[in-house]
């Protein structure tokens, strides 16, 4: 199996490839520019030589006149050892400084290679614009130019290779240094366990590109830590809640069995045990309900509901309890939404039950409904002693009791009502929160509008 390259190695190879491509392009451009420059220089040199040769051969239009100027021509060519000349007229060669070499006859500048020697060939008439004028063919030896270009090409390839290698090494070092925060993230992630969720990445030394990732990573650890703490507390709370009724059942049963008793005593003991068992069964059912909510398994039905009618039915149900507690129940307004009738009634029942329990005699419990631009608002508020602001966020925690006077392990209320209410509201796409001020405590439910 081929080993996958690390990110640092990939970056180093990418840097090397980019450097090699840039160096190669720069070298090719420089090579073409140098070659064009040499061609221009050769053209200038041949033009100047052409002027000198035309001056030397001025007025020559026959072999006899050329023979008279040949010595002067050779003297001129001897001063330019890299230059050769061929003179032709009417198909005859009057002078050939490069015998045995086939030269192009077209006018203008040409390149030619012969026996390992590079030439620049330039064809021009002796007298410009005169038909039948002898043809001059100048051959300039440019082998030294080509050697220079070849050396430059070798230098380009060497530079490309060395620069790519140097960039790969420097890129590997730079990538490894730049990715050090990622390795730190990996170390922290590898060390995270149920007992080490308090570790955090230092954001102040992170690069800008990784600071946001580090912040998200720390936030994730914070959420995991919070969830684990809640889970641990939840397990402890379950054990705490079940310990008292189980202890009561065991103690009561052991006492009954210590000696023979009348049938009525056994019947009374069974009824007492039944109450504890019913409370435990309800607690288990509530816990299963919350577990389904945590896993998104609560699927409320969507039916059109008139919240005023639903609240009115609940007020009638709690009317006797409110009358015994000398508390008045008031409903204000109405609203329409789409939701599960049974689930919403359960949520409202929990809120009304809490409100009645904590409202003093002679107090009032109000249920208000209104439609807003964003949806439906339902408020359950009651008179009584306020709740400190620091405790409000915890009211919806499982097994949390805001009243410290409540007896531990009471089988009357387990502290799950508000948690279940919150799960129901969230399953309907809404939210619930609590406000407490000026002798009133209100729970506000915001639901989306019905279809």
Q: Could you walk me through the main structural features you see in this protein, from its secondary elements to its overall organization?
A:
With 451 residues, the protein is of the alpha+beta class. The chain contains nine helices and twelve strands. It has a five-stranded antiparallel sheet, with helices on one face. Helix 5 (208-257) runs antiparallel to helix 6 (263-294). It starts with 6 loop residues before the first helix and ends with a strand.
Keywords, separated by commas or semicolons:
single chain; 451 residues; alpha+beta; five-stranded antiparallel β-sheet; five-stranded mixed β-sheet; rod-shaped
* Alpha carbon gyration radius: 50 Å
Please give the count of helices: 9
How helix-rich are the residues, as a percent range? 40-55%
N/C terminus separation: 57 Å
Q: Quick one: overall form?
A: rod-shaped
Mean pLDDT: 81
Major sheet strand order: 2-1-5-4-3
Tell me the number of strands.
12
> How much strand content do the residues show?
15-25%
Q: Stretches where pLDDT falls below 50 for ≥5 residues?
A: 404-411
């Amino acid at each position: 199996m081929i080993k996958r390259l690390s990110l640092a190695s990939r970056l180093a190879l990418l840097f090397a490839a980019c450097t090699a491509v840039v160096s190669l392009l720069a070298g090719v451009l420089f090579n073409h520019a140098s070659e064009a420059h040499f061609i221009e220089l050769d053209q200038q040199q041949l033009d100047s030589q052409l002027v000198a040769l035309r001056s030397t051969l001025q007025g020559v239009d026959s072999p006899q006149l050329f023979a008279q100027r040949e010595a002067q021509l050779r003297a001129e060519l001897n001063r330019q050892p890299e230059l050769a000349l061929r003179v032709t007229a009417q198909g005859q060669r009057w002078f050939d400084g490069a015998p045995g070499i086939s030269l192009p006859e077209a006018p203008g500048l040409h390149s030619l290679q012969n026996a390992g020697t590079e030439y620049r060939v330039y064809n021009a008439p002796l007298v410009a614009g005169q038909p039948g004028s002898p043809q001059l063919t100048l051959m300039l030896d440019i082998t030294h130019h080509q050697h220079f270009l070849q050396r430059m090409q070798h230098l380009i390839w060497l530079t490309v290779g060395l620069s790519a290698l140097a960039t790969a090494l420097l890129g590997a070092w730079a990538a490894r240094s730049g990715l050090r925060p990622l390795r730190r993230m990996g170390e922290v992630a590898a060390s995270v366990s149920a007992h080490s969720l308090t570790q955090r990445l230092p954001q102040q030394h992170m690069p800008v590109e990784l600071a946001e990732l580090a912040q998200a990573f720390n936030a994730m650890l914070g959420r995991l830590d919070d969830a684990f703490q809640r889970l641990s507390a939840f397990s402890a709370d379950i054990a705490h809640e079940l310990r008292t009724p189980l202890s009561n059942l065991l103690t009561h049963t052991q006492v009954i069995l210590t000696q023979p008793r009348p049938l009525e005593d056994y019947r009374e003991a069974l009824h007492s045990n039944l109450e504890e068992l019913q409370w435990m069964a309800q607690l288990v059912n509530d816990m299963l309900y919350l577990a389904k909510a945590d896993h998104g398994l609560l699927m409320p039905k969507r039916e059109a509901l008139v919240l005023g009618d639903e609240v009115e039915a609940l007020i009638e149900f709690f009317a006797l309890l409110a009358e015994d507690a000398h508390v008045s129940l008031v409903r204000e307004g109405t609203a329409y939404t789409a939701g599960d009738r049974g689930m919403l009634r359960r949520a409202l029942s929990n809120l009304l039950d809490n409100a009645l329990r904590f409202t003093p005699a002679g107090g009032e419990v109000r249920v208000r409904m209104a439609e807003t631009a964003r949806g439906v608002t339902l408020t359950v508020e009651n008179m009584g002693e306020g709740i400190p602001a620091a405790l409000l966020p915890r009211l919806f925690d499982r097994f949390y009791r805001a009243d410290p006077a409540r007896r531990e392990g009471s089988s009357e209320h387990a502290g799950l009502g508000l948690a279940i209410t919150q799960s129901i509201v969230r399953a309907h796409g809404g939210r619930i929160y609590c406000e407490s001020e000026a002798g009133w405590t209100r729970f506000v439910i915001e639901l989306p509008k019905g279809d």
